[in-house]
Design brief:
The protein has 372 residues and is an alpha/beta fold. It has helices at 16-21, 34-47, 62-69, 84-105, 116-125, 186-190, 215-228, 242-251, 270-275, 285-294, 308-315, 325-330, 348-364; strands at residues 8-9, 13-14, 24-29, 51-58, 74-78, 109-112, 129-132, 148-152, 166-169, 198-203, 233-237, 261-262, 279-282, 298-300, 320-321. It has 2 domains: 3-178 and 348-364, Glycogen Phosphorylase B (Rossmann fold); 182-330, Rossmann fold.
Length: 372
């Protein structure tokens, strides 16, 4: 079939010719955690006969992690900082940059874990979109209402509250890819970590995110002061970006003296790092939940609105919320852990998302023939 025959009908979305040819699905990687999350989803969708178009935003370590994990993607657009106006501007600019590529490839379904630029493009081009989200307090962007929404069973909904277009999958987002994880002890040598040291992985708060609460920075800095004064402890610090690393080095130069803190100079396998850590302290959601899924002691210094998934993990004693400096001193236990434990081996979350995707395709294109 020639490209010329794959015309996009602006009134009705992808053309009948395209639908008969099979399903091309567009996945957009908007943030670092989306890379490991979508890797098994891409694999399973391709096994089912679908063709996958993957785009990525040049933000944080998205593209470098995609390269490291073998996820082939086209880089489009970048991050525009924490200023609210620039965020809106950046989403609009990136949407405009994505449109020519999308018109060229003609996907029949758009999927992301919160890419507002993708939803904007999908709405403009009338492509059905799936918005996957596990944090119910995410803020909507104008014209970014998706066609469908996938959320964990613990979450009620995000943007399509009360709608029959909200579909739920079992477990949590991290259950999609944690079962594929295989530990590799080479990361210890890679980062210059000694087997004699207690390893603490620390993720600073997302200071550029719309949900950021400055209280998280207070807790982060207080804990880091304690950590750097504790003998035998080494922290692997994972700044959100180079700007945040430079700000921390400038504000707290003493932290970085004496080898107490290691900042990787390249993208690392996050799950592997967590597995070889004794505990995790993080101001972000994904790393906390990855540690919980792996059964690693994890302490959250996130001070935004606590979502349903984190509340569930807290109730299950798989996550400890740190709400004050007193909590940081009393609840965070600096201790070695037994790293010979068992890992999660549940495929329900991945199977659930793949099944829901097939269900949406059947609803949107009932007369289509899937590629085999």
């Amino acid at each position: 079939m020639t490209t010329a025959s794959l015309n996009l009908d602006q009134k009705s979305g992808p053309s009948a010719a395209l639908r008969k040819a099979g399903h091309k699905i567009w996945i957009d990687l908007d943030n670092t955690p989306h890379v490991p999350f979508f890797k098994p989803i891409i694999r399973e969708l391709e096994r089912a006969g679908h063709e996958i178009l993957v785009t990525a935003r040049d933000a944080f370590q998205v593209t470098s992690l995609a390269d490291r994990m073998g996820v082939s993607c086209t880089c489009v657009g970048r991050h525009y900082g924490k200023n609210p106006f620039m965020k809106v501007f950046g989403i609009s600019v990136r949407a405009a940059q994505l449109i020519p590529l999308v018109l060229r490839h003609r996907p029949v379904l758009a999927m992301s874990h919160g890419s507002r630029a993708q939803i904007l493009v999908a709405n403009v081009l009338r492509i059905p979109s799936v918005f996957i989200c596990d944090y119910e307090f995410a803020k909507p962007f104008p014209l970014s209402r998706p066609s469908w929404e996938f959320v964990p069973e613990a979450v009620s909904s995000v943007f399509l509250s009360g709608s029959d277009r909200v579909k739920k999958y079992p477990g949590i987002k991290e259950d999609v890819y944690v079962p594929d994880f295989e530990p590799d002890s080479g990361i210890m040598k890679e980062l210059g970590l000694s087997a004699d040291s207690m390893v603490v992985t620390v993720r600073p708060p997302a200071t550029e995110a719309h949900y950021h609460n400055p209280e998280s920075e207070v807790l982060f800095e207080h804990f880091m002061q304690r950590l750097t004064k504790t003998p035998g402890v080494v922290a692997v610090l994972l700044p959100r970006n180079k700007r945040q690393e430079e700000e921390l080095r400038k504000k707290w130069p003493a932290w970085f003296d004496g080898g107490k803190i290691i900042v990787p100079d390249h993208a690392v396998d996050g799950l592997n790092l967590l597995w070889h850590s004794d505990l995790v302290v993080s101001g972000g959601g994904t790393m906390n939940r990855e540690a919980a899924a792996l059964g690693i002691p994890v302490y959250s210094i996130f001070r935004g609105k606590i979502g349903a998934v984190d509340r569930l993990l807290t109730e299950q004693h798989r996550l400890v919320l740190i709400e004050s400096v007193e909590d940081a001193d009393k609840k965070i236990v600096l201790a070695r852990r037994n790293k010979a434990g068992t890992r999660a081996n549940c495929q329900d979350a991945l199977r659930g998302i793949i099944g829901l995707t097939e269900e949406i395709l059947a609803i949107e294109y009932p007369g289509a023939r899937k590629k085999v």
